[in-house]
Amino acid sequence: MDLIRLLQGLASRARIAFYRVSGMQIHGHVSLRAIEVPQRAQCITLENGAALDRGVVLLATSDTARIVIGSQVYINRHTMIDADALVEIGNQTMIGPFCYITDHDHSIRAGKPPGEGPLVSAPTRLGARCWIGAHVTILKGVSIGDDTTVGAGSVVTKSLPAGVVAAGNPARILKTLTDAES
């Protein structure tokens, strides 16, 4: 068991070294399992204590895209962050497995394939201490306030304030947290 942990730690350090050489901004100690960064590692910033599990994909679709992952953020398996402008995740946020977070979509025009038009982008931000359940989709231009929880399977199409619990498709606020609950 200790040998397995040692080997996993060495593999994580090798990945960190590779991504630093590729231009990724890594501040402090981070943990990277077998993640995927198909291109533009220089567009990604990871703060101290960030931990990304197996199968996480960080995709910057343009040279001006930014993905900023705050300190002590945990991103669970097979989550994809897809940025053309800015996707920012606040400190101490937890993101469940199989989530999709984006800041853009394709423009659509009658008689034209969606891939022919320009991308339509708007920054997407998740506040500090958020909890994003499994299989959540967060779309372009959404801001999620600090201390907000989004229930599993939700589709977030509009911004959510701080300190609420939201769920559904589209996500809607179910309750506001009190200091005793948060």
Task: Walk me through what this model shows.
It is built from 1 helix and 21 strands. The protein is mainly beta and 182 residues long. Helix content is 11%, strand content 34%. It has a single domain (2-176), classed as Hexapeptide repeat proteins (UDP N-Acetylglucosamine Acyltransferase, domain 1), CATH 2.160.10.
Would you tell me the overall average pLDDT?
Answer: 94
Count the beta strands. 21
User: Could you give the distance between the termini?
Assistant: 36 Å
- CATH-derived architecture: 3 Solenoid
Give the tally of structural domains.
1
CATH superfamily: Hexapeptide repeat proteins
Quaternary: single chain
- Element-by-element helix/strand order: HEEEEEEEEEEEEEEEEEEEEE
SSE map:
Layout (H helix, E strand, L loop, with lengths): L1 H20 L3 E2 L4 E2 L11 E3 L4 E2 L4 E4 L5 E4 L4 E2 L4 E4 L2 E4 L4 E2 L4 E3 L1 E3 L12 E3 L2 E3 L4 E2 L4 E2 L4 E2 L4 E2 L4 E2 L7 E5 L2 E6 L6
Parallel strand pairs: 1-3, 2-4, 3-6, 4-7, 5-8, 6-9, 7-10, 8-11, 9-14, 10-15, 11-16, 14-17, 15-18, 16-19, 18-20
Antiparallel strand pairs: 12-13, 20-21
Outline of this structure?
This protein is mostly beta strands and 182 residues long. 11% of the residues lie in helices and 34% in strands.
List keywords for this structure.
single chain; 182 residues; mainly beta; UDP N-Acetylglucosamine Acyltransferase, domain 1; 8-stranded mixed beta sheet; 1 helix; 21 strands; 11% helix; globular
